[in-house]
Write the structure tokens for this entry.
Amino acid sequence: MSPVLSGVLQLLALVAALALSYRPLGDYMARVYSSEKHLRAEKLIYRTIGADPDAGMRWPAYLRGVLAFSVAGVLFLYLLQRIQGVLPDSLSLGFTAISPDQAFNTAASFVANTNWQSYSGEQAMGHAVQTLGLAVQNFVSAAVGIAVAVALVRGFARSRTGELGNFWADLVRGTVRILIPLSVIGATVLVACGAIQNFSGIHEIGQLTGGTQQVNGGAVASQEVIKELGTNGGGYFNANSAHPFENPNAFSNLFEIFLILVIPFALTRTFGKLVGNVKQGYAILAAMGVIWLGFTALMMWTEYAHHGAALQAAGGAMEGKEQRFGVGASAIFATTTTLTSTGAVDSFHSSFTGLGGGLTLLSMMLGEIAPGGVGSGLYGMLVMAIIAVFIAGLMVGRTPEYLGKKIGTREIKLAACYILITPTLVLGFTALSMALSSPPGSILNVKGNSVDGSGAHGFSEVLYAFTSGANNNGSAFAGLNANTPWYNTTIGLAMLLGRFLPMVFVLALAGSLAEQTPVPETAGTLRTEKPLFAGLLVGAILIITGLTYFPALALGPMAEGLS
Amino acid sequence: MNNSVRSTARLVGAGLRALLVLTVVCGVIYPLVVTGIAQAAFHDKANGSEVKAGGKSAGSERLGQSYTLEAKDKDGNPLPDPKFFQPRPSAAGPNAENTKYQLIVSGASNLAADSKTLLDSVKQRRADVAAFNHADPSAVPVDALTASASGLDPDISPAYARLQAKRVAEANGLPAGKVEKLVEDHADGRILGFMGEERVNVLKLNIALRELAGAGGKR
């Protein structure tokens, strides 16, 4: 079998697995978020928090819940890293405290569902930080994302009320009823493939030629599964999902890609169920699916073609890729991780072809909505749907409506603010980093540097870092040494603002929609469940992203691809 | 003012309590349950898939190792041992920050596709691998010329293993046919026929090779 055929078959197998899980998982999640009953364990949790899970919240109260919980998360994670040096060796593995700027960066990163890592897991973080801190945020930051998406969906589904549900109930249910059960199953599968799961710490094993080598032990499989399922992406090890202990074989690799995609895609079904029309969900799914498949096909093509002087000389794009995965599966993983907010990697994007690296960048720049992060993908796509409806309304001169709600001045202002935040952060911070004199010292592939590449690639490294941070992806063109006070601080800020400012506008939008009286459907209503609308939506996304980022892309990956 | 400070504090307090209780659920109970299942059902895999050779631990079948001589080349890198099958090039780094451990830090070169450094090392590796194995430079497969993603890649392509078979047989005083058969026996196909790439686990191959050489009485 040729490598290309094997790549295509793996893609088809993935699509089939996702199709099979779409309805059961989507329907289950719809039930989770509309059920009136509380599990006994959940009641215990609500009592500890001191929250009434049945109290309806208007959008400002819902937002305050999100922010309070996230502030607590940042503080806790920061402190945990700062006190690592005084923890007993069994918890810290003897690693010292993390420096203040790096601890801030990491705390912001994991709370913001980004998992940008300026540290190397195996030489910095002990059991306590990894398992009690980072892995916990992998669960709860994902649950926060789904909660905000569900609140927006309720804004469409409800009328003449300002209430969007209860944040604490949504947070706890997402964690207890969705993420944990799926993670237990997934972690077991990964261990069966060969991922490690123990608490033996760092210990010595033998070598064939004599002597010993040191290897890590740790709760790797349990963290790996939620890292993918919650579209977080922060690896236990520096090499992330390329490390054999995280991703032991070709099946686990495909399984991890499946885990990344399964919730974001299925949430479109949940959305359809909750607004009472599953076809609306299919239209959103179609737009997501078309972009994901299109980008994956392009990525596979360019990686198999292996443009670039060094890759041509080697005869294939295997630099920074593992033998057991090969080029095809690595390409699928790369598109998937950047089109969602995951950022886990099973191969290193910096060594991809110029076009392939550009595609990973562009995938993130789309706003990570195809299918996007858990929750954030759905609310990002719904905001784009509002923009698309608005554009269509302008063309025919009608007040736009979506799902029976009028898209008026207030709604479109909120949607516009939403789509402006990330580009502002990405382009602003990149420009600042390139303009200032000291930060460029971090760039690996600089022109004139002894580690020569082209200047374009060096610019791409910086652009990639802020795109990844502000979009809450977390993957890197890892040539950039990001563990400096400048990058730790600015990327930390980009991650927090890129996560929580959009949530402010999404929740305000949800509140405004929930207050409306629905308008009856007429012959002139745009049919948003039809293929025409899905096409319009894809067009709007590509045009808006293209116009926003074209100049920056031209300076980086395009210049590299043409050189 | 005072009121809003107090209500903010109350809210963050609720956030903190929520975080702590969810930390117990997701950070203590969940990993312990998974560890329990893993240790009971997949004890060896959960502990790192250690393999033994001659009754002693020979490493993990998931992690690549180096097979080198004491002697060093002009850059100070240890020379490859001709008696063993060699793994892919590795860009994994030494432990720089926490010197308490001799851990190898996993990772890739991150060099760009058009990087001159990468181009030079690819050319150098092609020449070195060809000379080391007495093979035609154009026959050297891509996995022998490029560094892996983890730097710990346990596998090589069957093509690279076949390329090394003759040199390995010579160095061990074994008939080439026997070593070539060993390679074919250790070549793993794609999972279910289509997932990933064909590969040979270098450690397992070298263990089998040593047994073969030991049985032949020539070491």
Remarks:
- DSSP finds six helices and seven strands in chain B.
- Chain B touches chain A through 104 residues (CB under 8 Å).
